[in-house]
Design a protein that fits this description.
The protein has a domain of 71 residues. Helices cover 67% and strands 0% of the residues. The longest helix has 35 residues. It is elongated and about 110 Å long.
Length: 105
Amino acid sequence: MAKPLKDMGTYGGLGIELVLGILLLGGLGHWMDTRYLGGHSWGMGIGFLLAIAVGIRNFVHAARSMQADIERAERQNPAAHRWTVDESWLHPEPPEESPKPEEPR
């Protein structure tokens, strides 16, 4: 039970990282605009694009890491990660016939 929760925490923070990166780098760009560039919004735009690029890089890195984790788990226990399909709902077995009562002679 601990492994799925650990994985959720490891990969679940990607969205938060992306949003915080956009807010922080966009805010830093806005601050630079008002302080040094006279409020022309170039710094905020560059900060936003830089944050998007860093976010995409983080997603690619996490995807590679996730794939490596999956492959490592499959090497440790190959049978545990195979897909199995329960087809009993699709092709139910015919009901067994009950024995017929004997007719009186």
